[in-house]
Amino acid sequence: MLFPSYSNILLAGIFDPFFPPPSSTTATSVDNLFYFILWVSVFFFAIIVGVMGLFLVRYRQRSGIQPQPSPSHNNLLEISWSVLPGLILAVIFFWGFTDFLDMRRAPDNAYEIQVVAKKWNWSFKYPNGHVDNNLHVPVDKPVRLVMSSDDVIHSLYVPAFRLKMDVVPGKYTSTWFEATTTGDFVLFCAEYCGTQHSSMLAKVVVHPSGEFEPWLENAANFLEDLTPAEGGKILYTRRGCVQCHSVVENAAPMTGPTFYGSFGTSQTLADGSSIIVDENYIRESILEPQAKVRAGYKPVMPTYQGQLKNEEIDALIAFIKSLSGEETAQ
Ligand code: CUA
User: Fold this and answer.
1) Do the Cβ atoms of 99 and 2 come closer than 8 Å?
2) Ramachandran region of residue 221, left (φ > 0), alpha (ψ -120 to 50) or beta?
3) Does residue 294 have its Cβ closer than 6 Å to ligand 1?
4) pLDDT reading at 180 higher than 90
5) Is the CB of 167 under 6 A from ligand 1?
6) What's the pTM?
7) Which three-class secondary structure state does DSSP give residue 52?
């Protein structure tokens, strides 16, 4: 941070309702530069428009007063209105550039989390293999995100951290942050990516010191203490099925077919043939979603090949079965 946070003190209050409180180590310096540019703009806007208004009145056409020839030029005025904005631009550039470098370079000891964006959910993969639809991090520790997209360009955006980075198919992008406040924050997709772009949300959960590691340990083994159907219900939300598949009776149409009452039924496919929704069909649809698309639905589901363990697929099947009142083998 190049400059102290005096501007923040000056402006706190006026803009607070518009911004979430800064909750990362770099958020305050982003705010300070924003406020500096804002107030420089407000200052010059007031001067220029003020003088313009004053001259409009003072030099208006009046009877009995003849127009005077204007002076050809004024060296002092012309040099100062070139040099002064140049100096202000230089300050903004160096200030912005140093903050930008701080935000681009993750500290060497940063904790690394893999991020995969796809239409329309986020998944966060931790070093122990656990995958979650929300981003869990420890407080006061630098976290580096290595991000890729399975389909189109998405953008990871956490307003409270003043953090935004595009997630692009076919390459990795990365960003980092260090959360300074515990609690829940909203993570948005900030790049229009299709019909459900606006619901492509996740939660950032910043754990108090010492509570992140136990959470991760627990989360990775959560299936152990649950029945398959209970585990499947959690996976349904956590792994993003919830974005496109409803699980209640008479739900509004969604991107994908409803899970409610679907197990064991006969359904028509896009090519006109029919299929019984059984364990093998569900498994195939998770791993190879385009193989047998139901009539009336677009082939937009991303594959979960390599992203769900066998026991997790079993749990999802058990959950879908339970929505048809089927007994599940324990
Ligand atoms: Cu993903 Cu918008």
Assistant:
1) yes
2) alpha
3) no
4) yes
5) no
6) 0.69
7) helix
